[in-house]
């Protein structure tokens, strides 16, 4: 049963919902991990919809940037008062969810507070530091951000220029931005809202640079909100999207903070200027790993937003004819439309499934690290580096296809897809530019192959064990596991090809860095294939674990769309393995899978259970009553407040008058 059916809905959409073969609440439970979690999302949406002061004052596309920031702040403040009665305050998921529900995806002054400011205090601060700041931050007595990137440096953290020099005599660190390129640039909420920040600066003790470390830094006076002396701070200006957030710049001039403001759970500076190393050199980067580990699920949901809009709209949009010339068909019936949208539905499910898995892996790693075991850090760094890169890229592609699938109306801000696209593709850049992160994973793949070459295959972790296999024939009595083998073949041969290229260049006398650079396109290809293999195998495992048979059946259908599409998409890498007859077979299986999934397409996107409030799309409305609401939306555009604008009276009219003969 599809739980979205209501009286007064567009009959085309109701027809789609009636053709679904499964219960959308049960599917939501599988998507979000449990019936309880899915149920909590519905309860929160429902509760929020009944609170008038949390509703949008006008559609976001009609707001200026200043209005967006004001609206985000207004709602954040109301939420802070109401949160205790609405959500479990200890749940990060519920906190994120309610903010997205109420404020949306365009960012807001507290967007970074929960995800990048509080976690480093909680994981890298000592017990005393947590006692001092955590409660204040959680109550939102202070608003924080995360200032790492600089005007001249982002990807390469080793080149950061901001310094924190220890002054033994005063027991203080002195922060400085020695050059224009050392200004912090980009941190969200820094521009106008935050009064505190985690600042990443090079720790200098006794003239020795110990590299980037995190510091708690007060930026603005807690009473007046004016920048404190020694601080230069402001907003960096409008962005491609995400304009509800005030990304900012920040400079320091001999700005002093107490020694106790360096986050010292792992690295320490003692009062006499001694430096105690962390248990793992990159432990200070763990805040980034945390955010990356959450990005697959987050991005999967961005894709889910765009697909909810495009699939629902495709079910009410009629254009052209198939056999029956008496009525135009739903565009969702065209194979091209299905090919454009259904593999993306499968990807959205796959990203969310493997996203929740990486969140679980991170949480486990955190426990291990707190217990002094850092051995899992390299694996998770490699995995999340690849995953954030592949998922953000494919999400961007999927959202853009969703926009095009909506024809002209997809281009209107009424669809809201352009905003979803703009926000989502920010993910290709933030938390590590995609190419840079793919190359981090490639280091791990190359090292794994070198282990095989050195006869140490048995030391390989489970995620890279396939690199040592030797599959050269596939029995195409195709089930998911055979597809997995095809993908393993592709990922393995590309990883070996890239590694051998790198090694050959090295053996020719080239420096390690030059050889790496000249092999880097091949290396990034290897990283993508490895990651896509991981996504596919997680999807297969997840579907295998589903108990409800009706849900399992439709997820198997979706998995078939995924595996056939993915293998067709990497055809060039499997030419040595699959014959052209086998490729034809897979292609036909894909077409059959598209037909099989067709009756469930609307129910599959309904199962994401994204409310109208959160979706903010006229095209994607749950009730499917698009045309009358598009007309209402257009009429409410501020340009239509007057019939004759100043642009006409001041310029166009005089121009036309002058042009009259
Ligand atoms: C109120 C609630 C609201 C909540 C809102 C949520 C809303 C959700 C919707 C969100 C929508 C929009 C939000 C937008 C938010 C945007 C926030 C963005 C923030 C940022 O971008 S912060 C800045 C991020 N910056 C980066 O990521 C920089 C990338 N660069 C690096 O990480 C590093 O420089 C590097 C890893 C590329 C290289 O580091 P380097 O020190 O030079 O090391 P290498 O020499 O390359 O490698 C040496 C070895 O170290 C290993 N290594 C590297 N990193 C790690 C690690 N993290 N862990 C373990 N090991 C690591 C590396 O593998 C090498 O190992 P090897 O020698 O090969 O064995
Ligand atoms: C929406 C948004 C929000 C952000 N929020 C924050 C925040 O809250 N806090 C914060 O500190 N930062 C934030 N950032 C900054 C972000 O983390 C950086 O922009 C990001 O890490 C990329 O760094 P960069 O801008 O220096 O890119 P660059 O490194 O200059 O990238 C430019 C090009 O160079 C290539 N390149 C760079 N190095 C290499 C290499 N070694 N090998 C091959 N190619 C390379 C890249 O692939 C890319 O094509 C945000 C950015 C955005 C877009």
From TrEMBL:
Binding-site list for FAD: 149, 188
Gene Ontology MF: a single term: fatty acid binding
Keyword check for Flavoprotein: yes
Active site: 431
Annotated compartments: Peroxisome
InterPro entries xref list: ACOX_C_alpha1 (IPR055060), Acyl-CoA_ox_N (IPR029320), Acyl-CoA_Oxase/DH_mid-dom_sf (IPR046373), Acyl-CoA_oxidase (IPR012258), Acyl-CoA_oxidase_C (IPR002655), AcylCo_DH-like_C (IPR036250), AcylCoA_DH/ox_N_sf (IPR037069), AcylCoA_DH/oxidase_NM_dom_sf (IPR009100)
Protein's name in the database: Acyl-coenzyme A oxidase
Organism: Caenorhabditis nigoni
């Amino acid at each position: 049963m599809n739980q979205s059916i209501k009286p007064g809905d567009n009959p085309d959409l109701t027809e789609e919902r009636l053709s679904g073969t499964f219960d959308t609440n049960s599917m939501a439970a599988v998507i979000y991990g449990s019936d309880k979690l899915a149920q909590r999302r519905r309860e929160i949406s429902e509760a929020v919809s009944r609170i008038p002061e949390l509703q949008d004052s006008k559609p976001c596309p009609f707001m200026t940037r200043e209005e967006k920031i004001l609206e985000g702040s207004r709602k954040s403040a109301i939420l802070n008062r109401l949160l205790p009665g609405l959500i479990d305050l200890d749940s990060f998921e519920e906190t994120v969810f309610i903010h997205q529900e109420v404020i949306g995806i365009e960012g807001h002054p507290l967007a970074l507070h929960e995800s990048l400011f509080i976690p480093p205090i909680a994981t890298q601060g000592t017990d005393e530091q947590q006692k001092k700041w955590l409660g204040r931050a959680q109550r939102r007595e202070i608003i924080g951000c995360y200032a790492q990137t600089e005007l001249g440096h982002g990807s390469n953290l080793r080149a950061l220029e901001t310094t924190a020099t220890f002054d033994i005599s005063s027991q203080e660190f002195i922060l400085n931005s020695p050059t224009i390129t050392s200004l912090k640039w980009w941190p969200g909420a820094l521009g106008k809202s935050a009064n505190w920040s985690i600042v990443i600066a090079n720790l200098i003790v006794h003239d020795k640079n110990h590299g980037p470390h995190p510091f708690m830094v007060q930026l603005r006076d807690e009473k007046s909100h004016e920048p404190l002396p020694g601080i230069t701070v402001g907003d960096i200006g409008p962005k491609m999207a995400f304009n509800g957030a005030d990304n900012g710049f920040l400079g320091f001039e001999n700005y002093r903070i107490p020694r106790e403001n360096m986050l010292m759970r792992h690295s320490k500076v003692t009062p006499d200027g001694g430096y105690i190393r962390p248990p793992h050199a990159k432990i200070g980067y763990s805040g980034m790993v945390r955010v990356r580990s959450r990005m697959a699920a987050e991005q999967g949901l961005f894709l889910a937003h765009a697909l909810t809009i495009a699939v629902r709209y495709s079910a009410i949009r009629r254009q052209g004819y198939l056999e029956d010339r008496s009525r135009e068909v739903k565009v969702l019936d065209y194979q091209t439309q299905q090919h454009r949208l259904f593999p993306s539905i499968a990807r959205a499910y796959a990203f969310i499934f493997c996203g929740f898995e990486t969140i679980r892996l991170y949480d486990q790693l955190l426990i291990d690290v707190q217990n002094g075991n850092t051995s899992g850090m390299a694996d998770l760094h490699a995995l999340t580096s690849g995953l954030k890169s592949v998922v953000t890229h494919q999400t961007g592609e999927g959202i853009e296809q969703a926009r095009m699938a909506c024809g002209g109306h997809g281009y209107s801000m009424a669809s809201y897809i352009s905003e979803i696209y703009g926000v989502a593709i920010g993910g290709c850049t933030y938390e590590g530019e995609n190419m840079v992160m793919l190359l981090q994973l490639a280091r791990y793949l190359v090292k794994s192959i070198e282990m095989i070459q050195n006869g140490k295959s048995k030391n390989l972790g489970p995620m890279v064990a396939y690199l040592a296999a030797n599959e050269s024939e596939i029995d195409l009595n195709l089930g998911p596991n055979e597809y997995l083998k095809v993908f393993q073949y592709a990922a393995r041969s590309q990883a070996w090809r890239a590694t051998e290229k790198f090694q050959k260049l090295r053996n020719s006398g080239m420096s390690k860095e030059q050889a790496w650079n000249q092999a880097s396109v091949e290396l990034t290809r290897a990283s993508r294939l490895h990651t896509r293999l991981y996504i596919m195998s997680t999807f297969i495992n997840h579907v295998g674990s589903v108990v409800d048979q009706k849900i399992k059946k439709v997820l198997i259908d979706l998995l078939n769309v995924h595996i056939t599409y993915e293998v067709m998409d990497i055809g060039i890498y499997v030419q040595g393995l699959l014959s052209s007859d086998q490729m034809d077979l897979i292609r036909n299986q894909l077409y059959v899978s598209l037909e099989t999934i067709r009756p469930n397409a609307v129910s599959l996107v309904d199962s994401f259970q994204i409310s109208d409030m959160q979706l903010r799309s006229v095209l994607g409305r749950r009730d499917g009553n698009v045309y009358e609401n598009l007309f209402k939306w257009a009429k409410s555009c501020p340009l239509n407040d007057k019939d004759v604008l100043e642009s006409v009276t001041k310029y166009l009219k005089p121009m036309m008058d002058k042009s009259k003969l």
